[in-house]
């Protein structure tokens, strides 16, 4: 009935798998849990994650090289047994004790993809990770009622139940090891009008990146976003940043914004990378940065 599929990189997936295994066993349905390590550089975690193999219906495997999350998810789908796949990232924990049951109740119904949402724990974040925490709390932690208003704008592949055939048909693994490709996956679902449902079945995102790492990854995601999606029809419908970018470009203002960005970039960066990150400055930085990138 259900394949629970978890890519991991330099992270112990054992705590998450233990919780999911217990919840799945309580529901008495056919299931499997597969964790695939994507060439982790921290080899000490191999032994820890190998303990997953001691749990019935669970197994841990490894990529010999780092292929990226998209290709790793693709490999997980290929080796999975059941028609429904629950994809999670390894650095999350379910919010509720009936997390698995809530998803099981939607299997076989009219929707092909069900997104449970994401939350961040209500605690003071370490200053070295405050940008990722503040961004997550402000921009990603949305209830289902809000996400339903624009369902393809809130596709999060780190907590999604999806028909395997639909995932395989729309996966983006052939694009290579890009960062931040959830938006590309969402666009494929949007263009094919795949039925998507948002529910409140959240996970806590625990593995926060350091400020500089998240900042750099955010810019990397803009590179892939503009190059892969900048000229796509109807992209404005699912991504607000590309919507604003396309407005500027149509009005021939993108070069002006790029020039202003180059002048203001050091000031904006200081307002972002500090103990109290300014998210408006982060938005302006990303908009200015994306205006400096040439679409393919």
Automatic annotation (TrEMBL):
Molecular-function GO terms, alphabetical: transferase activity
SUPFAM superfamilies per record: Nucleotide-diphospho-sugar transferases
CDD domains on file: Glyco_tranf_GTA_type (cd00761)
Keywords: Transferase
UniProt entry tagged with the keyword Transferase: yes
Domain Glycosyltransferase 2-like: start-end pairs: 3-167
Protein name from the UniProt record: Glycosyltransferase family 2 protein
